């Protein structure tokens, strides 16, 4: 595609809370070191919008509202820009690693770009996003999608990378037991990863019965509603003389869930928090002291995409069962964001086709 710069495309722009507009824009021309990607599929995520979008210029990108949404996407290389070093060519199938980092702060200098002091994201912080027909990607954000992995699965690499990073950061090892609190998309994907990596038991706590069914589909061995059962007592019953699981994953951003997580891990067990909190929870500190338990945080991903590609390519993790709707960009607000607000429990991942083609090649 040689004359992309003369063409226009449609893009979903976030102007503010409840104000997402589908706008006509110029297709970007790839600059030095950039590759133009025609987006195939882009997932919708709970963080799309007000929590992370900049209301003042982002310290790295300099962009403020409106910004193009979409950070979970796959696509096909349409044009390779000047001075691209890697072996990219038209037609290559790719996914985008969405973290934008400064490269200069304490965290970045130590290889923890996912904990950058100025952290930003493609599709939230300016620079374009996946809810548009084209994205001009710096080449370092690209990962090659294995030939046997579909573009639809490719669009779920981002949340799968979050889950794989959380499991790795928690120090999980084959044969361990785990409790997952919250069966939203991240809780479900964490469950999939735990099962694929050989957990001996995965227990899930989730108030919605529809979501508990999804956790069962992901391979969880036991499901409980925290509204009907005493989670800590159930975990103790199931883990026998261990009196708790090795690791509890908090993916609910709920104080009761976090307290249950802390009480449900065994002596010297680990609580891994992957939630983003809007309120500070109160926690039983003495439980940490006297049972030598640890709480860790995990944020997005770093060096996790190779493991994501291996898991999808080998078939140890299959995600297509968790696509609950596919929609064209025109339906983004009604069929996407509103649907997620009103029928949240029915959905794991809604995938959007920015070009509007719902029957795309593998
Ligand atoms: Zn996301
Ligand atoms: Zn940094």
From TrEMBL:
Keyword set, alphabetical order: Membrane, Metal-binding, Oxidoreductase, Transmembrane, Transmembrane helix, Zinc
Span of domain Enoyl reductase (ER): 16-352
One GO cellular component term noted in the UniProt record for this chain: cytoplasm
GO biological processes: butanediol biosynthetic process
InterPro entries for the chain: ADH-like_C (IPR013149), ADH-like_N (IPR013154), ADH_Zn_CS (IPR002328), ER (IPR020843), GroES-like_sf (IPR011032), NAD(P)-bd_dom_sf (IPR036291)
Protein name per its UniProtKB record: Enoyl reductase (ER) domain-containing protein
Cited PROSITE patterns: ADH_ZINC
Cofactor(s) required, per the database record: Zn(2+)
Annotated signal sequence range: none
Domain of life: Eukaryota
Transmembrane segments: 178-203
CDD domains per record: butanediol_DH_like
Family according to the record: Belongs to the zinc-containing alcohol dehydrogenase family.
